[in-house]
Amino acid sequence: QLQASGGGLVQAGGSLRLSCAASGRTFSGVTMGWFRQASGKERNLVAQISWSGATTYYTSSVRGRFTISRDNAKNTVYLQMNSLKPEDTAVYYCSVRVSGNDYWGQGTQVTVSS
Predict the structure, then answer these.
(1) Which of 12, 18, 24, 25 could form a disulfide with 79 if both were Cys (CB 3.0 to 4.6 A apart)?
(2) What is d(CA 2, CA 76) in angstroms, rounded to the nearest whole number?
(3) Distance between CA 86 and CA 11 in Å, rounded?
(4) What burial class does residue 102 get, using C-beta atoms within 10 Å of its C-beta: 0-12 exposed, 13-18 middle, 19+ buried?
């Protein structure tokens, strides 16, 4: 089970930190990440991080503003979002990648006002 939290309403230029706690099984060795889905649009990958944290990926629109991190002892992944823009408004889902497939839990709404 993946439970995301930390979303909310923020003004443009503000910051939010999302957290996602994984439970119910061990996620040892798996890549974790964050997707987002704006209203009426498809779900897209925002960022991913390898088990060790040594490898990260960011979609171009968030690179330099968002930072993904993880605490394996807590089975938790984080997404620090700075310099938020109205176009970042979406439901954010954390994910785990198992055998090449991405699985999501419940999302958290992020709304950025202009």
Answers:
(1) 18
(2) 9
(3) 8
(4) middle
> Phi and psi for 98 in degrees, rounded to 5?
-125, 120
CA distance 90 to 24: 27
Task: For Cα atoms 48, 54, 56, give the angle at the middle one, nearest 5 degrees.
Answer: 25
Tens digits of residue pLDDT in 20-66: 998 876 677 889 999 999 999 999 999 999 999 999 999 999 999 99
Pick the closest to residue 83 from 54, 112, 52, 48 (CA basis): 112
Per-residue DSSP letters for 11-73? ETT--EEEEEEE-SS--TT-EEEEEEE-TTS--EEEEEE-TTSS-EEE-TTTBTTEEEEEEGG
Cβ neighbours of residue 41 under 8 Å, at least 6 residues apart?
Answer: 90
How far does Cα 46 stand from its chain's mean position? 7
